Every structure is written in structure tokens, then in C-alpha cells.
Amino acid sequence: MFNHLQELSPSFYHRTPVGQIMSRSQSDVLQLQETFELIVQSFSDVLSLLGIVTMMLIIDWQLALICLSIVPPLFFILGYWQKFARHSFMRIRRAIAMVNGEYNQNITGVRVVQSLNRQDANMAHFDDLNSEHLNANLEASRFSGALQPIVEMLIGIAMGFGVVFAGGMMAKGGALEWGVLVAFALYIQRFFEPIRHLTMQYSMLQRAMAAGVRIFEVLDLKPEVSDDPDALELPEIQGEIEFEDVHFHYVPGVDVLHDVNLRIQPGENVAIVGSTGAGKSTLVTLIARFADVTQGRIMVDGHDIRHVTRRSLAGQMSMVLQEPYLFSGTVADNIRYNNEDASSQEVVDAARTVGAHDFIINLENGYDSILAERGVNLSVGQRQLLSFARAVIGNPRIIILDEATANIDTQTELLIQRALQRVLEGRTSIVIAHRLSTVRNADKIIVLSQGRMVEMGTHNELLSQGGVYERLYAVNYGLISEPLGTIESNGDTYAALPDGGLAATPADD
Ligand SMILES: Nc1ncnc2c1ncn2[C@@H]1O[C@H](COP(=O)(O)OP(=O)(O)OP(=O)(O)O)[C@@H](O)[C@H]1O
């Protein structure tokens, strides 16, 4: 399950809350585990049942058949019961997943919960989910509870009608010895013991099956991006990236990227700018093949990235996300995350390269300091420096970076700027740029607006064009307060939006 979850595409995680995934991985797996215990227990019950039936048939087959005539109705009732009970057991699994999902969400976001004073509202919602869980359990208990009396009733009929009445009549008529009848009564009591057990286990098995169904629902999911059967290993690359007529959508019919054509030379530093929702993150995640283009192709050093293995592609690029995720463990472990074989010296070198060494040695235990989950015991800037070190230790040819927009102090900003220059040096880099200096220093700036590349050039070229970039630049860096009217770009006129973006299509008038 863990292995499979690690392979699934980001889109699965976009639509499935973490708590619900955890619920399937833990609570459902635990429930399924009972199946295996049940199988072992059932084995001895089935064996004794077979032994007893054989003995009964040997002693008196006619009386044995009369007593066993309750078995077909028992199966019929179990089949009928199972239809309803299963629905009820599934309801429990879904309800507990909702409870776990809500629980996880509120604990992870506890700071926001407290700052927005949502505790009471959240508790009320959590109560509702718990009530649903309780009701689902009550319903399932009623089903399980109903089964036992039904079985007991059938046993009573077999004892009363089979042994006492039919057996008594046979003994009275001399067709059966009284001693055999007594032996039969004892066997039949032992015969029903495993039947009782098996029906109870059947009920538990049904619960476990409901959990099993949910586990296989996940295991059966195919990663949206998987290696082509003939995929090649990507040889060592120079770092050239080419987008050819690339279109992409998350939801069919709603293109997020339209007709992107772009060539990035090895070693080139490219900045992507554009208003929020323009498609910047989408564009860069396509290079790392988190999803496949819906039209066109992306080439790295002339290889269509769909025809090479994901591991060989990912092994030659690093991605630094806007909110770097650090893992619990030591500082060194986190830097080594991209290259577990890296020596201590290489870890220090990587940290020096990005300018993280100084703050690390000032931590209580230097490189052996333990980080909390997500690195929350470090400042945002420090976390980012560590994520840079983690990226460069693998010595990737391509580096993709989503610059943090978080408010960091000028000192840290300077530190990060310097680190950034060293990180990008000599590699092909694509930076979703928010900082002035990154944009200015880039070899090429790409302006995205509503999924279209509307401009491309250096800072000075784009400024002198007086188009979208100039406007965006002025708005983003406070040179003007509000864009107005329309903007000319590549011969088209676009309506300028209040957030600094542009309308998707050229304005008619
Ligand atoms: N998983 C998703 N499912 C559906 N639509 C998505 C998904 N992720 C992004 N989008 C949509 O795709 C468009 C582009 O999003 P993207 O994150 O690439 O923008 P962006 O330019 O990086 O924005 P920002 O600067 O705010 O991070 C947006 O309209 C967004 O709503």
C-alpha cells in the first residue's frame, strides 16, 4: 500500500484528503488483518465439522441427513443477510475515513483553526461525523446481532425436530438403538459449536471484506503517469528543454496551457512571470512529468520525456517548491535526501554552496540537530536554504524553482538571493520568479497570461516593448497602483485585469 501510494500521481492527492488515505492505510488494513486471523481459526472449525459430519453419517446416515437439512436454509439466510450487512459495514469504513480526514485536517491546520477561532464550529462538525460513525456501527451491530438468534433457532429446530422427534420415533419403532440416539444427540451438539463459530466469523469476515474492498480500490488505481513499456534510460543530459505546441488541461475542455512553444538552451536561466493562476506551476511540473501533456510534447536533450523512465528523468533534475517540505530527522539527513550516499564532506559542501553552513553550525548540534516534522523549528528562510542544499547535492543539470513569496526579512532575502545565484550557476534553470533580482538577472523571461505565452525576452527587451511585462512589472513592484485599459502585445490588444493579468483573448474593441 505504501509503495503504491508513493507511485500515484499528484492528481490523486489533489482529490483525496490525506486523513482519508491514512484511514485506508491504517484502519482498513488493520481490519483486513483480522481476515487472516479468522482464516486460521476457521480452519480448525471446518476440520472438526468435517469429522463430526463423517461420524454422524457413519452412525446413522438417515438421521444425519434430517439434521443436516438445516444447512441449505442457513446458507440461504447468510447470503441474504450478507447483501444488507455488507452495505452497513462499508458505511462504517466510509464514516471512519471521514472522521480521520477531518481529524487530520484540523490537527494539521491547528494554527489557522486557533487564529480564526474555529474550535467550536469544528467541534460541532466533528460531532456530526462521529454521530454518523456511531449510527453506522449501531446499524452494523443490529445486523450482526440478528444473525446469531437466527442460527440458534435453526439449531433448535435441528435438535427438536431432527434428534428428539425423528430420532425418538425411529428409536421407538426399533429402527435405532437408544444408545445411538444418545451418541447422536452428543454429536449434534458438538456439530453446532463450529457452526456457531463460523457464522460469527462470517460476520467479522464481512467487515474485513468491506475494508479489503477499500484497500483494493486504492491498489487498483493506476498512476496517471507511468513508464512506457519501451521507455529508455535518459542518458546524461546537457539540460536542453523544448516545449512543442504544448496544451494541458486538468479538467477536459478547460485548457490551462495553450499552445506553448519554448526552447531553453543548456545552462540558460529562465524566469517565468505572470499573474496568479496563469499556469506557471503547471508549466514547470510538466517538465518533471507530474502529469503528461494533453497535446504536443516536451523534449529534454531531444528525448520526448514520455519515452524515458521517470526515474532517469527525475534523477537529473531537482525541484524546489515554494514551501519546502523538510522531514523529521537531522539537518544532514535532510540535505542528503536527494543523494543518500553523499559523504559528510559533500553535505557540508552543499550547505556552503548555498550559504546555509553558517546558520547550521550555530544550531545546537550543528548538522546533527534534529528537525521537527516540516522543519517547523527553523525559520522560513532557513528552511529554504536547506531545500536549496538538498537540491544541489544531487548535482542536477536542470533545476526548477518556485520562489517563495513569503515575507522574509531583507537580511534573509539577501542570503537567499546569493544562494540562488550559486544554485543556478552552470545549470539549466526555470524559476517561477517573484523577486525583482531573479527576474532582472534571467537570460530569458517568459510572460504567461491565462495559460498563454504572451511575451518572451530579456528584462530590458521586454521593458522596451512596453507590453504585458512592463505593465506586470510595474504593478508587481509598486511602480503603478492599478493597470488600466488595454495592452498591446504581439500585435494583439489584451484587456488588462485589475490583478495585473490579462484577459485570455485579445480584446475586440
Ligand atoms: N489540480 C488541479 N485541478 C484542477 N485545476 C487546477 C489544478 N491545479 C491548478 N489548476 C488550475 O490551473 C490554473 C493554473 O494554475 P497554476 O497553479 O499553474 O497557476 P500559477 O500561475 O502557478 O499560480 P500561482 O502564481 O498563484 O501559484 C488555475 O486556473 C488553477 O485553478
What small molecules does the structure contain?
adenosine-5'-triphosphate
Amino-to-carboxy terminus distance: 57 Å
Oligomer: single chain
Uncertain regions: pLDDT < 50 for 5+ in a row? 480-485, 495-509
- The proportion of residues forming helix, as a percent range, comes to 55-70%
Mean pLDDT: 83
Total beta strands: 14
Shape: elongated
Task: Sketch the major β-sheet.
Answer: 6 strands, mixed
Strand content: 5-15%
Class of secondary structure makeup: alpha/beta
What is the rounded Rg?
Answer: 34 Å
Helical stretch tally: 18
Placed side by side, the strands forming the largest sheet appear as 6-9-10-3-11-12
Domain ABC transporter: 241-475
Membrane topology: Multi-pass membrane protein
GO molecular function, one term: ATP binding
Family: Belongs to the ABC transporter superfamily. ABCB family. Heavy Metal importer (TC 3.A.1.210) subfamily.
Written account of the structure:
There is one protein chain. With 509 residues, the chain is of the alpha/beta class. Helix content is 56%, strand content 15%. The strands form 4 sheets. It has a 6-stranded mixed β-sheet with strand order 6-9-10-3-11-12, with helices on both faces. A 4-stranded antiparallel β-sheet has the order 2-1-4-5, covered by helices on one side. Helix 15 (410-424) links the parallel strand 9 (398-402) and strand 10 (428-432). Helix 3 (18-59) packs antiparallel against helix 5 and helix 4 runs antiparallel to helix 7. The longest helix has 54 residues, at 119-172. Mean pLDDT is 83; it is low at 480-485 and 495-509. It binds adenosine-5'-triphosphate. It is a multi-pass membrane protein. InterPro entries: AAA+_ATPase, ABC1_TM_dom, ABC1_TM_sf, ABC_transporter-like_ATP-bd, ABC_transporter-like_CS, P-loop_NTPase, Type_1_exporter. Residues 241-475 form the ABC transporter domain. It is found in: Membrane. Residues 1-207 form the ABC transmembrane type-1 domain.
